[in-house]
Amino acid sequence: MSKAKKNPRREHVFGDLYEALSETFPDLQTERKTLNVQKFARVLGYSNETVYKALREFQPLSLGIALRIIEVSHENQRAKSLYWPDLLPFVLPGYPEYMAPVEKAASASVEVDDLLG
User: Fold this and answer.
1) Predicted confidence band at 58 (pLDDT cuts at 50, 70, 90)?
2) Are 22 and 35 in contact (CB under 8 A)?
3) CA distances (Å), origin 41, targets 55, 65, 100
4) Could you read off the pLDDT of 66-80 as tens digits, one per residue?
5) Residue 69 · residue 45 · CB < 8 Å
6) I need a labelling partner for 28 at 20 to 30 A (CA). Which of 11, 70, 71, 100 fits?
7) pTM score, two decimals?
8) Is 115 helix (H, G, I), strand (E, B) or coil?
9) How many Å apart are CA 66 and CA 84, to the nearest integer?
10) Is the pLDDT of residue 107 over 90?
11) Whether 41 contacts 48, CB under 8 Å
């Protein structure tokens, strides 16, 4: 009988979101000034696994978790307050590249208003 080969455990792949949150929440940093994900999960009210998955850059950040991060940033007095534009690049990867320029967006809204009359 052959044993199934175990795949080596993948390293946690944290990127810009992890770095930004580490700076945003100084009360939730480890001694090495990195984000303590277990404490952060408790504060958010999610499981450790859910938060680890959210911080990995394999998929976009869910709207629910993003909203909770924003809420917690406003509740924590020592934290830097976050807003939707701060987390939008993590919720909608590539959004700046595909966002309409302000001038086009403004003229488009005028055209819609004209149509609605």
Assistant:
1) confident
2) yes
3) 11, 10, 35
4) 999 999 999 998 999
5) no
6) 11
7) 0.72
8) helix
9) 8
10) no
11) yes
Task: State the Cα–Cα distance between residues 115 and 117, nearest whole angstrom.
Answer: 5
Alpha-carbon span 43 to 25, nearest angstrom? 11
Residue whose entry in the numeric block shows the structure tokens 């534009």 = 85
Cα 26 to chain centroid, rounded: 17
Tally Cβ neighbours within 10 Å of residue 41.
19
**Which tokens in the block code for residue 66?**
């993003």
Neighbours of 76 (CB within 10 A): 16
Weakest mean pLDDT among 12-16, 99-103, 111-115: 111-115
Cα 69 to Cα 89: distance, rounded to the nearest angstrom: 14
